[in-house]
Amino acid sequence: MQDSAFPLIAGVELGGTKCICILARGPDAVEEEIRIPTTTPAETLAAIEAVLDRWTGFVGIGVASFGPVGVDRAGADWGQVTVTPKPGWSHTDIARRLGRRYGVPVGFHTDVVGAAMAEAEWGAAAGLADVAYVTVGTGIGVGLVAGGRPVDGLTHQELGHIRPVRLGGDDWIGTCPFHGACLEGLASGPAIAARAGRKAEDLAADDLVWENVVHALGQLLHTLVLTGVPRRVVMGGGVMTGASHLLPRVREAMTKSLGGYSMLPEVAAPDTYVVPAGLGGRAGPLGAVLLGAQAVRERAFTTP
Ligand code: ADP
Ligand code: ZN
Questions:
Q1: Helix and strand counts by DSSP (H, E) for the chain
Q2: Fewer CB within 10 Å: N-end or C-end of the chain?
Q3: What CATH architecture does domain 3-114+281-298 belong to?
Q4: Angle, vertex CA 87, rays to CA 140 and CA 157, nearest 5
């Protein structure tokens, strides 16, 4: 897909701590890639525009942003970061602003949907149109793609906040400011650190805290299987990639939790059903490029 038939896109991965701007036609046709720190919305968006102002020839823009974001094109909040605890960022318009400035189609979605699309095009789920990408890092997020498109309705799903059944006897309160012991409040990096009293990267593989993490993540996979959507689940993020013992344990927890139900041949082969991310840190910016290319195909110009 990185031949000249693929349009030249300006992609922006908008992250909690840094942004990556990329001018590319695909992973093997990157013309420029620039990192800028994420600070206030005004400063960060001005810095992104200073990069894009220098670039010529791009026919679309794609933005893969930290969430939650407005993804309903008919909605007033489309293209915005909506309500976030990140200081100053709630209700920040991003996509309409870039669309007006550059006059090209703009694609906009979450960073995890971008990663799902990139893994499905060029990574660990290449060739599959129906894919879930799960990140277990500072937070837990899921990008769900079906038929090559994000699965959206009113908004994007927020499966990182489902409430897993707890392991017997576990009544730890969790760290989610909204739900306490939701999935993110039990199994994200900061949750693991809060429970263990030291960083997730310093925990031995046989530390009992992992049992709770594995049990909770197994239930996320159970839930994803039951949606009937993903043909493969790709798992990334600092906790998953750093703690290499996790993936086999999480696969096993999924199989145990499903209890023999919905055992399609794909699901019954967990080693190929649940796989590590193939693109690493490149999934975000390349996902933005795919979102931009999709907008170009659909001639999705922004309305003021
Ligand atoms: P973000 O989610 O902000 O993009 P990352 O995906 O890099 O960031 O995840 C950061 C989290 O990963 C931190 O909570 C950190 O403690 C955790 N982490 C980093 N390295 C490891 C490791 N080797 N083992 C377990 N957890 C790790
Ligand atoms: Zn929560």
A1: 10, 12
A2: C
A3: 2-Layer Sandwich (3.30)
A4: 30
Q: pTM of whole model > 0.90? A: yes
For a ligand 1 pocket test, name from 199, 206, 207, 250 the mutation site with the most ligand atoms within 8 angstroms of its C-beta.
199
CB crowding 19-32: b at 16 or more within 10 Å, else e? bbbbbbbbbeebee
Ligand 1: distance of its center to the CA of 160 in Å?
A: 16
CATH of 126-277, one of 3.40.50.10490, 3.40.50.2300, 3.30.420.40, 3.30.830.10: 3.30.420.40
Q: Of the bound ligands, which one is closest to the alpha carbon of residue 158?
A: 2
pLDDT at 1 exceeding the cut of 60: no
Q: pLDDT (tens digit, 9 = 90+) per residue, 184-207?
A: 999 999 999 999 999 999 999 999
Give the ligand 1 atom nearest the CA of 243: 24
